[in-house]
Structures are given as C-alpha cells and as structure tokens.
Amino acid sequence: MRKLWGKRMLATVLAGAMLVGTIGVTGCKKDEGNNATSATNGQNPVAENSTTEAPSLEETATFIPDYERCVVYEDVDYIQNEDYMEYLNLDLIDKSLTGFNGAFLIAIDDTIVYAKGYGYTDETSQVENTIHTTFGIGEMSTGFVAEAIFKLSEQGLLSLDDTIDKWFPSFVQGKTITVRDLVEFASGIPNYFKEPEKFYNGEELKTLIDGAVATGENVPKNFLIDYLTDIELNFETGTNRIINYTDYYLLGIIIEEVSGMPYENYIYEQVLLDNDMYMTNLAYDGAMAKPISKKDVYIKHSNLARGCMTGNTNVIEMYKWIRHVSKDVYRDYETAMKMGLTGYDIDRGYADGYAILNTLTIIPDVTEPSQVDLTKNMLYVVFVTNSMDDLETLNRYYYNVANHVNTLLDNYKVTISTEEY
C-alpha cells in the first residue's frame, strides 16, 4: 500500500472523475436470531449526549461510554456499498482473511465502501467481531492528545511556546523545553518506557515500571514527575524528532492541569465527541475484544501509559478520526508537512495483543506535492485485530487486504481534471 506519512507523500494514479457526495449503505442488517450478535449489542445506544457531572479520576480509569453500537450504523453489523462491489471480489477478501480476528474498512472520502468484522472477540465466548467491536489502539491515541493541546491553545488557555517548567517546576531542563517541543517529539527527554535508568532515581523507576507491566496494576497518578528533576537529555531540544512516550505522557498532565478536568474526560468530551466518536474511550482495559493469543503473555492495561498509549475504538470510529485528520487537520501538503511532525502522524498502534493500522492513499496523480488537496480524493483502509502474536502474520493479513484495495483503485475508472488543483 502507498500511504501518506510525514514527508513520504505519494500520489496513486487513478484515471477517472472527481468523487463527490456520500453513497448510501445497503443491506447488511444484523441477524436478530444470532446470539453472538445479540451479545455484542448490549444496551441500546444513548439517543443523544447528556451533560452529567464528571466522574472522579479513579472512575475515569475504567470509564467506558454507554454507547455499544456506532451511531448511524446501529442496525447493521457490516457495510457493503453496492455501488462499488463490481470492483471488489468479496469472496477472495473473505478467503484471504481465514483465521483472522478483527475488522477492516475501506472508504473513499466520506463514503464507506466495505466494512466487516472477522473472527471472535475472545477465545471462549464465541462472540463475533463486527464493525462495532472496540479494540485497543496503543500509540494512535497520541493524535487525541495533540488535538486537545491545539484546542487549548486556540482557546487561549495555554501557548505552544510556554515552557513546561510552568507545570513541572522541579524539572531543570523544563525551562528551555516548550509545549510545542513536546507535541513535536522534539524535547530530547528520554523515553521512560525504554530508558527509565536515565531518569532521576532510575533504578527505582525501572522497578516500578517493570512491576506495572508484569501485573497490570495502576501506578500512582502522574508518577513520572517524581523522577523528572535534573536529567540528561538524549539530544539538544529542537534539534531532532523521535517518537517518545514521555513527551505525550507529560502533555496528558498539562491537559488536565490547564482544563481543570480529568484528562480522560477532556479527551472524550472535547475531542472524541467533536468527531462523533461516541464509543471510543481512554479506558485502560475497556475494549470489547480481548486478546486471542497463542503466547498467553498479555496483561490488563494500567495507567502506566496514560496520555501516550491507552485507548479503545472500533473500525468505524477510527476511520472517522483518520478522515478528520486528513480533511480538517492536514488539509493540504504544506499543513500536512507541519502537522505531520506531531502525534497526529502515528498511523499504527500496538497494545498488548492488539494492533491497528491505517493507510491513506491519494487517488489523483499530481506532479507537484503542493497541488495535493487532502480534503478530497482520498482512499482509506483501517485494519484492527485482537490477535497480534507476531508481525509476520499481521502483515500477511494486512497486505492481503491491500491487494484487493489496489484492485479497486485499478478498476474504478473516473476522470480527474487538473484544473481542480
């Protein structure tokens, strides 16, 4: 698959006309007599958002929204858009995903072409995965954090140029590190997951982290602050950019301090609901699907990765998020090059037993990157699984789907006017 990621922006050739509008979903009704489907449905979805008193921080650690089926798609378990079916061989797709546990989606702009769940939510109940089933998303939650920071900046509640000693006064290097540096992974602060020994009292920090990883138990709230005093940076702030959990863990604390709300609540109410993502949440162990493993090594999540690597969503709502990032955040080449330096640009995530991958492909062929308009003519593939024992197997399933998507691109003929750009 060819994708958009940072400066690696490639245009996929597709002859034909501009794709506009949204084509309706057909068929795909849920089987009311299917026990597996009924078990997945759970409670009726909430009719509309209601304003309630924010739960305590302890409650938000396991807070899962009341929605159990995607809004708009409550009555379907998969989506098959008949206007595109002559370009996809569904029998081959299903055959290539034999043994797969998860879900995948194909969409062009605002139109979902195909979306379906495969396999089961866990090893014992035989509840089938559908488009509504939620999975752990790992590092992809950093995009929610980036959006929250930019929103708080737009509201004047913080400045991207604020130095972070404002919130972490005991951190000596914080006097020269800005919020922008954290958002752009440019701080140089060591990664507390991978390099705990580089922090103050590092052996104690390593023991704390190893214990949380082994047991899934929660660590003290904002624990990292105790180990963030006078530490050696990996590189001079602003001179490099390396994806780093520490940067976004600290941003999570800043969001909570600035907004006056529990971090999980702010993300849900101000970021997720703004994008019609009602079932997505930051619960540490809240996914409907549980890891199906041959290794028996997966643990329950804790708040260890709060702010940088926790969250659950389904294939429909992750597509909504990726579409939002492409259309509203990236928009065009210049903006994409700037915003692609942030947590928005992480296009795959791994959590214990879960994996999520997404691909954005530019449909028109353009000669100059500056001509690209990311608000239209985009093809999306979202792929989620709760059976991620090894990357080789995951990639095999993923590229099986990718081959069929390329067939869609090769066969769906339209005409594109360069005057549009």
Which short descriptors sum up this protein?
421 residues, alpha+beta, Beta-lactamase, 10 strands, disordered N terminus
Produce a short descriptive summary.
With 421 residues, the chain is an alpha+beta fold.
Fold topology:
Blueprint: E1 4-5, E2 8-9, H1 35-41, H2 57-60, E3 79-80, H3 90-96, E4 102-108, E5 111-118, E6 135-136, H4 142-154, H5 179-183, H6 202-215, H7 245-259, H8 263-272, E7 312-313, H9 315-330, H10 333-339, E8 348-351, E9 354-362, E10 378-385, H11 391-411
Antiparallel strand pairs: 1-2, 3-5, 4-5, 4-10, 6-7, 8-9, 9-10
Helix pairs in contact: 4-7, 4-8
Report on this model:
The protein has a single domain (4-144, 263-420), classed as 3-Layer(aba) Sandwich (Beta-lactamase). Helix content is 28%, strand content 11%. The chain contains 11 helices and 10 strands. The longest helix is centred in the last third of the chain and has 21 residues, at 391-411. It is globular. It starts with a strand and ends in a 10-residue tail after the last helix.
- Give the C-alpha Rg: 22 Å
Shape by Cα distribution: globular
> Number of folding domains?
1
Strand runs, count = 10
CATH level 1 name: Alpha Beta
On the 0 to 100 scale, the average pLDDT is: 81
Strand residues, percent: 5-15%
CATH fold-type name: Beta-lactamase
Task: Please tell me the CATH architecture by its name.
Answer: 3-Layer(aba) Sandwich
Give the helix tally.
11
Reported for the largest beta sheet, the result is: 6 strands, antiparallel
Query: What would you call the structural class?
Result: alpha+beta
- Order of SSEs: EEHHEHEEEHHHHHEHHEEEH
